């Protein structure tokens, strides 16, 4: 697949799903520790998300890095916006920023304490 068509595919994923996680492995079977952490955070918050396994598609793996100009996987998107990778998502959870962002974007989640 050429670069422009993979970018169109990625734009479709992000437009059609409120929360998207590009990851190594799947939500049910993460194949990297960083992907597993982001999955667990979203699951603990009860956030419904669509996962895309970059290990299944080398074009997608490179394409998503180019799309966000972000070199690593996982990558989390909410309502079309790139949020970040594992460290950013974890820090946002602990600071409460992630929960605030979910509220602002009207994405359903359950409130949990992080202490």
Question: What can you see in these coordinates?
Answer:
By secondary structure, the chain is α+β, with helices and mostly antiparallel strands. The chain has a single domain, classed as 3-Layer(aba) Sandwich (Glutaredoxin). The protein has 5 helices and 4 strands, in the order αβαβαββαα. It has helices at residues 3-16, 33-44, 58-68, 86-95, 97-104; strands spanning 19-23, 50-53, 75-78, 81-84. The chain has a 4-stranded mixed sheet with strand order 2-1-3-4, sandwiched between helices. The longest helix has 14 residues, at 3-16.
In terms of topology, how is this protein built?
Blueprint: H1 3-16, E1 19-23, H2 33-44, E2 50-53, H3 58-68, E3 75-78, E4 81-84, H4 86-95, H5 97-104
Parallel strand pairs: 1-2
Antiparallel strand pairs: 1-3, 3-4
Helix pairs in contact: 1-3, 2-4
Descriptive terms for the model:
Glutaredoxin, globular, 115 residues, alpha+beta, 4-stranded mixed β-sheet, 5 helices
Low-confidence stretches: none
| Domains, number | 1
- The topology string of helices and strands comes to HEHEHEEHH
Number of β-strand runs: 4
Mean pLDDT: 94
Give a quick summary of the entry:
The protein is an alpha+beta fold and 115 residues long. It contains five helices and four strands, in the order αβαβαββαα. Helix content is 48%, strand content 15%.
